[in-house]
Amino acid sequence: IQLTQSPSLLSASVGDRVTLSCKGSQNINNYLAWYQQKLGEAPKLLIYNTNSLQTGIPSRFSGSGSGTDYTLTISSLQPEDVATYFCYQYNNGLTFGSGTKLEIK
Amino acid sequence: QVQLKESGPGLVQPSQTLSLTCTVSGFSLTSNSVHWVRQPPGKGLEWVGAIWSGGSTDYNSALKSRLSISRDTSKSQVFLKMNSLQTEDTAIYFCTRSYYYVMDAWGQGASVTVSS
Questions:
Q1: Residue-level pLDDT at B83
Q2: Which of A9, A34, A50, A80 is the most buried (most CB within 10 A)?
Q3: Would the CB atoms of B106 and A42 count as touching at under 8 Å?
Q4: What per-residue confidence (pLDDT) applies to B90?
């Protein structure tokens, strides 16, 4: 399964509601996770099984979707959210999306 | 506290073999799987392969012919060996713990450069 993330670059203001998209080439059956990677660091798990929040992750992060289309939402963007976000599917093989780089406007 | 730490040579010559070690703590290799994921400079993440809690392995089909993953449970270590390295294999190599295919803990990564 190939994953297409959009946009590749997103610029938003502090406090904005931000939505990142991940589209699969086939049905993912909700076996989708989201990772946050800050510059020079390892990826960090944010969301798994489409909408389950990993322990310790702020509640401003949420996930949704079904079938081939999935979304990561940040309800109120904070400066520390600057990072690249990757989606990852584990329904059929294991693949990552190409990432969305999120910056502060 | 779950921890993973990669170690290995930072520089490998083309056509040579890469050997990396992932030393884990805070969990058992017989209860969790360990995956390797790599990231070329400035690019995205690529799943390399995994060793499951039972000891079986799975590999990225594009790398399978060059790749071997093994473990020593007594030392809490997982090993990656990749032969016939090319410049395209230059990347940061991460080892990760997985629970039901979800990679929930990552090592800091080992930078590998393939160059003569």
A1: 97
A2: A34
A3: yes
A4: 98
Residue tagged 């809690």 (tokens):
B53
Q: Which residues of A touch B (CB under 8 A)?
A: 31, 33, 35, 42-45, 48-49, 54, 86, 88, 90, 94-99
Measured between beta carbons, which residues in chain A are less than 8 angstroms from residue B104?
45, 48, 54
Could A43 and B44 be called an inter-chain contact, meaning their C-beta atoms sit closer than 8 Å? no
Residue range A62-87: mean pLDDT, rounded: 98
Give the CA distances from residue B70 to residues B20, B27, B34, in Å, rounded to whole numbers and listed in that order. 11, 17, 10
Reported as a single tens digit per residue, the pLDDT across B53-87 is 999 999 999 999 999 999 999 999 999 999 999 99
Nearest residue to A64 (alpha-carbon basis) of A54, A75, A50, A53:
A50
Closest CA to A101 of A11, A18, A22: A11
- Single-letter amino acid, residue B115: S
